[in-house]
Each structure stands twice: as structure tokens, then as C-alpha cells.
Amino acid sequence: MLALVKNAPGPGLELREVPEPRVGINDVLVRVHKTGICGTDLHIASWDPWAAKTIVPPLVVGHEFVGEIVEVGSNVADFGPGDLVSGEGHVVCGRCRHCLAGRRHLCARTIGLGVGRDGAFAQYVALPMTNIWHHWAGIDEEVAAIFDPFGNAVHTALAFPVLGEDVLVSGAGPIGLMAAAVARHAGARFVVVSEPNPVRRAIAERMGATLAVDPRQRDLRDVAGELGMVEGFDVALEMSGNAAALRAAIGAMAHGGAIAILGIPTEEISIDVNEIVFKMLTVRGIYGREMYETWYKMTVMLQSGLDVTPAITHRFTFRDHEAAFAAARSGDAGKVIMDWTA
Ligand code: NAD
Ligand code: ZN
Q1: Where are the alpha helices (DSSP H) in 35-92?
Q2: pTM of this prediction?
């Protein structure tokens, strides 16, 4: 089969022939239809310091996908050939305290699809059956392809109650864009998106943000005041990984507010802990998706009218992977989809 491979340490990815994955008795083999490009894939492609210390080539990259099952192992009874599925990209150990208690998203021994094992930028991908999410017939396959980052958005946006609350989203990358739509769908009053990039601010407003502001030009406390918030934001979703964004969010929170941090900073961030103490803020880190509560919520929110399609801005065939990666790297794109059937 053809796959996008990190073949040796260093920058670049190669589209090349590799053996099809072998399916163990508990595994499912999926013929990949569509995939989404994630920041992680860009890090691996460019071979930044994180990739150099994390990735062991050769590796098939990619973890956001949708496809159809073509083969199941002998223990697999819940799925069969022809089912349209996506995969949870975190393969957990199944044996630690949290896994045994059903809190699989807290497993400390998680192995990432397309990071620690061969991934989904390929014509076929194999996963344990416990990592498979079965879609309803008729789902938009482009949306199904991005259930992984959509799940990051849902996990973060629903980390704290947003019904009737005022929500700040810092960073309007694909995940922040979807989180803004989720917060609005879940009943927030105001959803303010803070994002320096005007292209992404425009998409945020199409996705239901009350207002999208440039943090270099606007103080978030002024924005909150102008909208009529009495003290500040009740909930903040940190989706930029940027130090200034985190500090600005902390500074614009109301007493008793809550900050969910998904963004991954590239270096240490210093913050004024006094503000957290005296405002009595709750700060929670978010990694991945809750298995499978987040997946359930994604499904039913789409079925009840949530629309995340404006976050998808570019489509390529896998043969044009260089153009697809360039679009994702440009910073002006939302989600970039590659089609593996063409
Ligand atoms: P992205 O890089 O496309 O988006 C980040 C956005 O933040 C960019 O649009 C950027 O312009 C904006 N930004 C930069 N400085 C800012 C500032 N001062 N204020 C507000 N916005 C600012 O990323 P993405 O793919 O949407 O992912 C969002 C973040 O979540 C990234 O940091 C990513 O690494 C991280 N992530 C975490 C998990 C997890 O499980 N915790 C999973 C996936 C991604
Ligand atoms: Zn575990």
C-alpha cells in the first residue's frame, strides 16, 4: 500500500510503498477514505526538537481519519467489513489503575497512532477494536475524518459548564474554531475568540463567535466590559499554546472562573499565581478525548444541529501531500483534508 512515511531522522515525509498492516485477533483493518492534518504531523514532518526526541523512524504518520472496515480479527464481534469508522488515536495500556477504573483518557502509558505506532496517512490502518468509533450512516465523511481534533474541542469546551456563561477561546486554529461552535451550541451567552490571524478570526465569526478580536489590539478586559460582563469571563479555553494568551486569559477571568488548557506551549510559561489564588480560579489540563464520552457527545451534538464544517477549508488528494502540508503550515487554513481514495 502507499503511505506517508518518516523514513529517517530529519525533515520531510515520503509517499512510498510499505507492507499493509497485519491484523491481530483483537484488531480491525480499515481502508482509509479521508484524513486530517494535525499540528503533530507538521512537527514530525519538519523534525523539530519534540519530534527528534519522540519519533523512531521508519513511521507511517497521521492519526485523524475515517474509513471503512475491510477485515476484523477473530475476537472482533462488534464490527464488520463495510462499517464506516474513525479511530481514537490514543492506544491505552488497559491495565493501569485509570484504565481499569474506566478512565482510559488518564492512562499514563498511552501510545499515539502515527506517533508511537504506524498511523493513518496510508491506504490502510490497523487499530485495536477498543479504539474504533462506528459512525452513523450518512455522516459527512469530512467531519468524520476530524473526530480526533473535534474531540479535543469538545473535551475542552465541555470541561466546565458553559450554559449561560461567558466563554473566552484563545487561539482560533482548527480546534479553537470548533470549540467556539461547541460552546455556542452548548448554551454559552458570549463566546469571544482571541486570535491574531484575521483569516481565522473571520472563520470564527462564521462559526458562531459573538466577537473575534485581535489580542495585539484589544485588552480582553475591555472587550468583556463592552459586552456587559460584570466581572469578566466565566470559562476560558486556552487553545493557542501561547504565553501571552494564557496570561491575558487569567487576567480577564471573573472570580470563581475556570480555565481549561489544551494548547501545548513550546517552552515554560511564567504566570502570576496570585491571580489564580485570589480569583479562586480552577485550572485544568486537557489531553486527548474522554473514551468514549467525548465521542458520544460529538455524535449527538452533530445530530442535534452543531455544524463544524466551516472549520474545514482545504481538500487535497494524498498524492498532493506536499501542497496539503504547505496549506496546513501556512497558518491561514482551518482543517486540511487529504483524500486517500482518489
Ligand atoms: P494551531 O496552531 O492551528 O492554532 C493556534 C492558534 O493560536 C493560531 O491560530 C495562532 O495564531 C493563535 N495564537 C497565537 N498567539 C496567540 C495569542 N497571543 N492569543 C490568541 N491566539 C494566539 O493549533 P490547533 O491545531 O488548533 O491546536 C490548538 C492547540 O492545541 C495547539 O497548541 C496544539 O499543539 C494543541 N493540541 C493539544 C492537544 C491535547 O490533547 N492537549 C491535542 C491537539 C492539539
Ligand atoms: Zn492504562
Answers
A1: 39-46, 49-54
A2: 0.98
